[in-house]
Amino acid sequence: MSLIYSGLTSIFNKISDELRKSFLFTTIFSILEFIEDQWVNSYFKRFYPDENFLNFLNKNIILKEHIFNPLIVLFLFAIFLILSLNPPSTSLVITLIIAFVGFFIGSAIIPRHVPIREVVHFNRKDIYSIGFCLMLISIVFFFISVASVGGIPLLKPSIRYLLKPAFTMPVFLIIPGTCLMAGAYLKDYQDNEITRSQARFRFIFLLVIDCAFLLLLGYRTPLLAAFLIIIIMGFYGNIVSLWEVVVGALIGIGAIIGIGYFRSLGEMTITSSTSPFYTLQSRADFTLHVLNLLDFIGGNFGLTHGHLLASSIPGSDLGPRMMVGKLIAWRTEVTVTPTLIGQMVVDFGKVGVFVEMCLLGFVLGIGFKIMQKTRDFFYIGIYSLILTYSILGIETGILDIQVLIYFIIAVFIYLTCVKRSFYN
User: Fold this and answer.
1) 359 and 419: one domain?
2) I want to staple 129 with a disulfide (CB 3.0 to 4.6 A). Which of 12, 212, 286, 377 is the partner?
3) What are the pLDDT digits (tens) for 266-322?
4) Which H or E run contains 74?
5) H or E stretch covering 369
6) pLDDT beyond 80 at 35
7) Are 210 and 256 part of one and the same domain?
8) Is the predicted pLDDT of residue 21 greater than 90, yes or no?
9) What is the spatial distance between Cα 409 and Cα 253, in angstroms, rounded to a whole number?
10) Sign of CA dihedral 390, 392, 398, 403
11) Do residues 125 and 111 both lie within one domain?
12) 200-217 burial by CB neighbour count: b if 16+ within 10 A, else e?
C-alpha cells in the first residue's frame, strides 16, 4: 500500500510542480499574493470583530469543547425529524431509538477503550499536491458540465436535470480538494510559516472558489459541504473563532433555505406568498414519509440484503436513490433521498441499523479521538470531511460512491493508527 501511495503522490507532485511553474499559475498566484498582502495589512480589518466577540459563547463548555463532537450527528438528526410536518410511525420510532443507541455506543463508548499512541504522519507537500490536482480536475469538469447542457443551471433551474453524472461527479472532487489544500495551509500556520490572518484569507479564498462553481451548478448539498469543512477545520485549527462557527452555521442554513426557495419559485412548485421555511419543512416531511415506507419494507432483518448499498457502484442498473424510488413507488426515473438510516433498514432491517450506525459512530469517534490527541493538520482535515458528509447524510444518506470512498480511506488510515498503537 505504501508503494501505491508513493507512486500516486510522486505523480501528483510532478503535475502540481509543473503547473505552478507555468505562466498562467505564476500570474494567478502573484495576484493572489498581492490581494493577500492587502488583506493582511488592510486598515478596515481592525473593524472586524475579534475572538472575544459574543464572548458569552466561549463560556459554554459544550459549544467550546464539543460543538463538533460526533454526537452532533444525532442532535441534528433529531432536529430534522422535528421539522417534519407529520410524526413517524411507531415502528419507525423503535428503529430510530435503535439507531441512536447504536451510534452512541460506537462514537462515545467504544473509542474510550481503544488506545491511540502512534499515528501515521503525512507529508505536507504530498497532501497539497493531491488537493491542488483535485481542484483542477473539478474546475475542468465544471466547464464540461455547463457546456454539455448549454447553460448555467442556477440561471436556468430546469436544465439542472439534464446534467450528466459522469461530468458532475468529478466536479464534486472540489470538496476533498479544498479539504486537503486547507489542511496544507493549516500545517503552514501550525509551523509559523504563515500568520493567522494569511491562513484565514486562504481558507476564505478556497471557500469562495467552492461557492462560485457549486452555486452556479445549483447544488445545495456540496455547497453546504464546503462551508462545513472550512468551518470545522478552521475551528480545530484555531483559525476560526467560536462565534464565527455559529454565524457560519446560520449562513449555511440560510443558504439551504434560500436556494431551495428560489429554485422552487423558478420551478413554480410554490408561490411567492409561501414561507421560505416551508420548503425545508416539506422536504423533511417527504423524506420522513419515505423513511416510514422503507422501515415497513425492511422490517427486522431487511429486504435487499446489501443490494441497495451495492447499487452505489458505477455501472449499476439503478443508482441507490433511484432504487429507493422503485421500492416505494415503482418509479425508476426519480431519485429519492432515504435519510441516514434508510439504506440500513432496507438492506438489513432494524438489526442492520444498529450494526451500521454503531460502525459509523465508531469511525467518527475514533477519528475525533485521534484528531484531539494529535491536532495534526491531516487528521483535522479527514475528520472534518467524514463528519461533514455524515451530517449531510442525515437527509441524503451516505450513498454516493465518492463519499463511500472517503469513508473507506478514513477507515483504513484510522485502523492503521490503531494497529500501530496496539503493537507499539
Assistant:
1) yes
2) 12
3) 655 555 556 666 777 777 888 888 899 999 998 889 898 888 888 888 767 777 888
4) helix 72-83
5) helix 342-374
6) yes
7) yes
8) no
9) 29
10) negative
11) no
12) bbbbebbbebbeebbbeb
